[in-house]
Amino acid sequence: MSLETIDLDSPQRQRCAKPAEGALLRRIDLTTLRLFIAVCDEQNLTRAAQRERIAASAVSKRMNDFELAFGVTLFKRLSKGMALTPVGEALLHHARVTLLNVEKIAVELSEYSQGVRGHVRMLANLSAIVQFLPEDLSAFFSAHELLRVDLQERPSGQVVRGIEEGAAEIGICSGEAETRSLEAFHYRTDNLVVVVRADHPLAERDHLLFTDTLDFDHVGLHAASSIYLRSQYAATQAGKSMRLRINVPGFDAVCRMVQANMGIGLIPDRAFEVVGAGMGLRSIRLRDEWAKRELRIVVRDAAHLSGTGRLVLDHLRAAEQPAHKIVRAHPT
Hints:
The structure is a single chain. With about 325 residues, this protein is α/β, with parallel strands linked by helices. Helix content is about 45%, strand content about 25%. The protein contains 14 helices and 13 strands. The protein has helices spanning about 5, 10-15, 20-25, 30-40, 45-50, 55-70, 85-115, 125-130, 135-145, 155-165, 225-235, 250-260, 270-275, 305-315, and strands at about 75-80, 80-85, 120-125, 145-155, 170-175, 185-195, 205-210, 215-220, 245-250, 265-270, 280-285, 290-300, 325-330. Helix 11 (about 225-235) links the parallel strand 8 and strand 9 (about 245-250). The chain is globular and about 70 Å long. Mean pLDDT is about 85; it is low at about 1-15 and about 320-330.
């Protein structure tokens, strides 16, 4: 995004805009967009005002003035809060992208003054962060010492949504996630394993089917994780239900609960090597076809990534060979 997009009073912008359009564009300022996002996040005007440390009446006036200026309705005013209209949904997308780009400008200018020469935001699911990204990003930084990556963990579905909304340039998600119009590239593969105590009845098995585990208590990942959702679906397909004893937030927590005899767990093989192998536990390979998984890199448009984003994308695509196949291309 260029600085002209933000400077609505620039001479070039004024030459291109009709007088009436220019007057409307001057109604769009960063403060109003930030307050609008806060109201969307909180679904409540008072809480949004408290979050932004501004009077609720001032927030209300800005929202009303914006709606009047453009002749639109952004919110449905409900008894217990505020819900977005379709117009509001459209504005939310553009507002997030605009503020992200403004933040990127500020961050990059600041980092240039400190000797850093580039910055990229990433979202990734837990499997990618635990299994592959530490080594892959370490190798990247060895070749590009003056660059910086801001990495956040999200479930696969939220990774896709975050990339669509412009919250980050690059995402890594499960291959089963619906990537919609994003460009998607192969990243890595893993295989799910069942984690058990050494004294568990299944401990001597070399491999098994997921249905073989359904007579035992399970320690599950959080309900939004792709592993949890896929295992629940597999149990339903088998006409059974999982004997779920507890949900936990990460692979290390799964292994600790298994170690404490709370049940058996399902995690990727490389994750077990990283966090579970030193706990006296055993891993049993799942033979089910769905247990062999793909991780994908997703971007909105590879051709329009920042220079740093392009470097990161190319590096990650080359991390596992062959890795240069586009899984789903952005429609033209």
